[in-house]
Amino acid sequence: MQKVGETMETSNEAGSEGTHGGHAEIFIDQSRHRSTNPTTGEALYRLGAVVAGLELYREVRGDREDQPIPNGPETVHLTEFEHFHSGPPKEVKIIVNARKKEVPGPKIVFDEVVALAFNPVPSGPNIVITVTYRHGPQQNREGVLSKGESIWIKNEMVFYVKATDRS
């Protein structure tokens, strides 16, 4: 029995069975593969032999952006004959304190958002920096970004960064 995230051999047989016994036939960069279902992003990167520095994207229908798949332990649920492709990380257009910025996606960390808001970044023993966001992707639609944290981003996501002096 396979565990979540383990992958099966690549399959090139026409008419192969599909999602039976917790497996799915998928395509990564136009090559047919068979994977356990659910799996992990890390397992999909391995299965598709995604080159270091590239991202893996789940193809979506319609006028929406393909969804990045994180190269980690997060669970990924597959659908039969789903397509994925690799490519360079995309630039994401976000808004920080009412100013448009382009950043590499698919995630951003607290310090990056603060640096986009302030030049130079306020410092001192009494300075407290607060980062709030809204219009985020499904994983994190709105909230507070704390020091040391990272979050998923999407185009037109809005960040408010405020520095306060507690003295």
Provide tags for this entry:
5-stranded mixed β-sheet, mainly beta, 2 domains, elongated, disordered N terminus, Ubiquitin-like (UB roll), 167 residues, 14 strands, 40% strand, single chain
Instruction: Report the radius of gyration as a whole number of Å.
Output: 20 Å
CATH fold topology of the largest domain: Ubiquitin-like (UB roll)
| Structural class designation | mainly beta
Order of helices and strands: EEEHEEEEEEEHEEEE
Question: How many separate domains?
Answer: 2
- Counted by DSSP, the helix tally is 2
Strand order of the largest sheet: 2-1-7-4-5
The CATH class assignment of the largest domain is Alpha Beta
Mean pLDDT rating:
87
Largest sheet: 5 strands, mixed
What percentage of the residues does DSSP assign to strands (E)? 35-45%
How much helix, percentage-wise, in residues? Answer: under 10%
What would you call the shape?
A: elongated
Q: What is the number of beta strands? A: 14
| CATH architecture assignment of the largest domain | Roll
| Low-pLDDT segments | 1-20
Quaternary status of these chains? single chain
Gap between N and C termini? 61 Å
Overview of the molecule:
- The structure is a single chain.
- The radius of gyration is 20 Å and the shape is elongated.
- Strand 11 (127-134) and strand 12 form a beta hairpin.
- 26% of the residues are buried.
- It is built from two helices and 14 strands, in the order E-E-E-H-E-E-E-E-E-E-E-H-E-E-E-E.
- Helix content is 9%, strand content 40%.
- Residues 1-20 have low confidence and may be disordered.
- By secondary structure, it is mainly β.
- The strands form four sheets. Strands 2-1-7-4-5 form a five-stranded mixed beta sheet, with helices on one face. A five-stranded mixed beta sheet has the order 9-8-14-11-12, with helices on one face.
- The N and C termini lie far apart (61 Å).
- It has two domains: 23-87, Ubiquitin-like (UB roll) (Roll); 91-165, Ubiquitin-like (UB roll) (Roll), CATH 3.10.20.
